[in-house]
Amino acid sequence: MHQLTTPREEQPLLTAVASVGDAALLAEVVELRGKNKQLEQALVSRAVIDQARGMVMALAPCSSERAWDLLVEVSQHCNVKLRDVAAALVATTKGQELPEAIRREWRRALRRLHALERR
Asked: Whole-structure pTM over 0.85, yes or no?
């Protein structure tokens, strides 16, 4: 995503707004910039999570919902953010190994999945 202004370009804008005395507008601009940055990061994270979800669906095999549940389960059991678990899984397509804790938890999660399917 492209920003409309760079931080260097923002400074004169913020100074001009502050000189007019509209502190509320300045606060809103700063808040909206922060939210915009968070949304950009969320979009990037979401793409990686969706890639990992697709990988789980193909490798397990399982539904999209079950793949999501497995990613969340591994994330929670490893105490690692979901986006980091997803990034580690996607990185295996480029020759990187899963960290040991995530690998161990994936094995457990897949065993639980297969045990549920046998019932």
From this structure: no
